[in-house]
């Protein structure tokens, strides 16, 4: 396990709370963020896929970052998603994250144009990094199922050589542990932080020199993730991983964002958690019942929110 990672440990891909009119409920989002930090999370991946970031405008993303900090969520534990298809927007959001005190930002590749060359991707990130300046660290977001733009080993090597200490890590949401492990095998020794997006891979990744996880299921399973992280090299951690993998399997048995919002709505007793922006839609009553049964079968009892 990488012991000195900036975002080492359990990071939740935080849900974005919304009102009935689909505006953002910053008070409820901040409360959920604080609950996560009190229940096993070391950090918060806000404005990611699970947070519906690509359904939010630039001004809304800025309002989320500012609003969470204003409500007492420590900027130093947040890794906001700031990657967009536009260099200027990506720079704007990343600079804003740094100005608020965030130590790192998670960047998707420019995902609209398909099959870009490594030279093109290198040029994009070079423009972003040089325009952002400052001390904020850049984390790459590898999610080819959504972005259709992969980060290859060679491209990462080029970025690390060109921007040592600036390109700090990667979140791998490929679901392919061989790929995740390859990132760690090649670059963890250089301080490159590798995070899995699949809770089921956490124990194996920690044993391969990875830094931790940034996951959707941590919205409901962070307490179990924390047990795995704290016991990465012993039998207790391996045993906890079995439960964590079951939690992940249950959560992904339904559409991810509607399912997680349904679980949090049930947990908090607040049906407003089921508000989300189209094209995401609420689970049917039948689908919700199935999800609750699958989740409850994992045996994790969620601590009540304050």
Task: Describe the protein in words.
The chain is α/β, with parallel strands linked by helices and 306 residues long. The chain has a single domain (9-235), classed as Aldolase class I (TIM Barrel), CATH 3.20.20. 46% of the residues lie in helices and 10% in strands. It has twelve helices and seven strands. It has a seven-stranded parallel sheet with strand order 2-1-7-6-5-4-3. The longest helix has 17 residues, at 235-251. It is globular and about 50 Å long.
Descriptors:
306 residues, alpha/beta, seven-stranded parallel sheet, 12 helices, 46% helix
Chain-averaged pLDDT: 97
- The span between the termini is 32 Å
Can you count the beta strands?
A: 7
Q: Which structural class best describes the helix and strand composition?
A: alpha/beta
State the order of secondary-structure elements, H for helix, E for strand. EHEHHEHEHHEHEHEHHHH
Biggest sheet strand order reads 2-1-7-6-5-4-3
* Number of contiguous helices: 12
Which homologous superfamily in CATH is the superfamily? Aldolase class I
Tell me the Rg in angstroms: 18 Å
What's the level 1 CATH class? Alpha Beta
Main sheet: strands, sense, barrel: 7 strands, parallel
CATH architecture assignment name: Alpha-Beta Barrel
Number of domains: 1
CATH topology name: TIM Barrel
* Helix percentage: 40-55%
Described by the principal axes of the CA atoms, the overall outline is: globular
Low-confidence stretches: none
Approximate strand percentage? 5-15%
What is the topological layout?
Blueprint: E1 9-13, H1 26-38, E2 43-45, H2 58-70, H3 87-100, E3 104-107, H4 118-132, E4 137-142, H5 144-147, H6 153-162, E5 167-172, H7 177-187, E6 193-196, H8 202-207, E7 212-215, H9 218-230, H10 235-251, H11 256-268, H12 285-296
Parallel strand pairs: 1-2, 1-7, 3-4, 4-5, 5-6, 6-7
């Amino acid at each position: 396990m990488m012991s000195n990672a900036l975002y080492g440990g359990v990071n939740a891909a935080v849900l974005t709370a919304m009102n009935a009119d689909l505006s953002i409920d910053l008070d409820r989002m901040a409360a959920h963020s604080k609950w996560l930090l009190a229940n096993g999370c070391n950090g918060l991946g806000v404005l990611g896929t699970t947070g519906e970031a690509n359904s939010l405008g630039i001004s809304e993303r800025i309002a989320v970052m500012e609003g969470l900090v204003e409500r007492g969520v420590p900027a130093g534990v947040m890794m906001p998603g700031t990657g967009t298809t536009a260099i200027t927007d990506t720079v704007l959001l990343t600079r804003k994250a740094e100005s608020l005190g965030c130590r790192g930002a998670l960047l998707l590749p420019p995902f609209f144009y398909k099959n870009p060359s490594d030279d093109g991707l290198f040029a994009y990130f070079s423009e972003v990094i040089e325009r952002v300046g400052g001390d904020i660290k850049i984390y790459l977001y590898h999610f080819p199922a959504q972005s259709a733009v992969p980060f290859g080993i060679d491209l990462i090597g080029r970025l690390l050589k060109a921007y040592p200490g600036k390109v700090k890590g990667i979140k791998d949401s490929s679901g392919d542990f061989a790929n995740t492990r390859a990132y760690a095998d090649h670059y963890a020794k250089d301080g490159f932080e590798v995070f899995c997006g699949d809770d089921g891979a956490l124990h194996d990744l920690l044993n391969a020199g990875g830094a931790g996880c940034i996951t959707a299921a941590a919205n409901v399973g962070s307490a179990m993730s924390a047990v795995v992280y704290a016991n990465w090299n012993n039998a207790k951690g391996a045993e906890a991983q079995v439960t964590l993998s079951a939690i992940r399997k249950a959560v992904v048995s339904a559409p991810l964002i509607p399912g997680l919002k349904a679980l949090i709505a049930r947990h908090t007793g607040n049906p407003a958690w089921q508000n989300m922006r189209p094209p995401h839609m609420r689970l049917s009553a039948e689908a919700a019942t199935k999800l609750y049964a699958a989740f409850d079968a994992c045996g994790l009892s969620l601590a009540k929110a304050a």
